[in-house]
Amino acid sequence: MIVESQLEPSEALCRDVVSAGDYYMKVVKKGQTVRILDIEGNQAADTLFYNANDPSERYSAIDTIREQGNVYLTAGTKILSDQGNVMLEIVADTCGRHDTLGGACATESNTVRYSIDKKCMHACRDSWLLAVAENEQFGMSKRDITHNINFFMNVPVTAEGGLTFADGISGAGKYVELKAHMDTIVLMSNCPQLNNPCNAYNPTPVEVIVWQ
């Protein structure tokens, strides 16, 4: 569902451009709104959410999908934790839908999906591991890396129940905006993937904008 935001970037609390292959790891406070902006179009932002006061509570794909009765996320979706609490709510979305099933690229999956020589290519899981290693204040480790949301990524479900990685449905300037219902760690890998069409084989920056 397409819902445009009424917030003005000029009034934002902070703005960060995240290069392709880089990570973003910051706390969004309860009541604040965060926008993920697809600057050039068809980029994929692989994102995890954690309770900033207790990171053992984190985004649950199972609970979120079950409660909304849909495998895709869009405006109106409440993102639930593994304890059944609402973490964030999508309040604006100009893309239309976002993936919950495709997972994140890793050196292992690059090898299986593509070829052995793709193993050492940078992957989203590497970005997350680097993020938790460089942000010791959160007390997290690789054991905390779980299932993620792929904002802007197009992963259609086939009639047989399989998944396909298809051309992106986003475009330059499209965004998704979420309001935090609790203090939330936002851990994002701006996908560097060169082997599937999730970002048109051309990884580009995204911008993260936060309002009070």
UniProtKB/TrEMBL annotation:
For this protein, the parts annotated as crossing the membrane are none
Query: What range(s) does the DUF1989 domain occupy?
Result: 17-185
- What single Pfam family name could you report for this chain, choosing any that match? DUF1989
PANTHER family documented for this protein: RE64534P (PTHR31527)
What is the official name of this protein in its record? DUF1989 domain-containing protein
